[in-house]
Amino acid sequence: MVTCRRLKIGLQKARESSAEDRHYSRLARLRQVNLSAASRRQRDFSSDELRRVIIDDPTDQTIHSRIFAAIRYLIRQRIAVGRPITYVDATHLMRWERRPYVLLARQHGCELEALFFDVPVEVCIQRNKQRGREVPEQVIRNMAQCMQLPTEQEGFTRIIRVPDIT
User: pLDDT digits over 48-67, tens only?
Assistant: First the structure.
């Protein structure tokens, strides 16, 4: 069975505790590998929402690199001020798409955690039909076929698989 998947990437700062650290846990959760509509939860940073803010169109894929550069900038700022959790909403299907987060974690001395949502493609397709912006069904099926599962060898400290509970 082909499933759609979502991965939440978490960064945890590894350093000595201070008063500030006791106030902020220094955990930034970055997000996921998934097909469209794999998860129903809201995130702090959505690539679609940033497209809406920057180019006034959440469906416009022409500024992909600019959007993800902005997301990484925002993550660095949240790490700098010690925010406890940051979610990034984007598909991140391929290892090369996740690589910048691995490098970001290393650069900031953080551990990298992945929360992987394992959802059947048919469930994703059904959820997709209930969204305001529907992704073509064949696109979701193609995404499922090309997705590379996350591994610890990529640089994740831990990968947690969460099965669909529909």
Answer: 889 999 999 988 889 999 99
The first and second tokens of residue 15, run together, are 């350093």
CATH number for the domain including 62? 3.40.50.300
| Owning domain of residue 148 | 3-163
Tens digit of each residue's pLDDT (9 = 90 or more) over 94-121: 999 989 988 988 888 777 777 777 888 9
Domain count, the chain: 1
User: ∠63-69-71 over CA atoms, to 5°?
Assistant: 105
What is the DSSP-derived secondary structure letter of residue 152? Answer: G
Residue type for 149, please? L
CB–CB of 13/33 below 8 Å?
no
| Separation of alpha carbons 21 and 44, rounded Å | 21
**Strand pairing of 88-89 and 158-163?**
unpaired
Whole-angstrom distance, CA of residue 125 vs CA of residue 18: 47
How far apart CA 113 and CA 87 sit, in angstroms, is: 12
> If you compute the radius of gyration of the chain from its CA atoms, what whole number of angstroms results?
16
Alpha-carbon distance 102 to 75, whole Å? 13
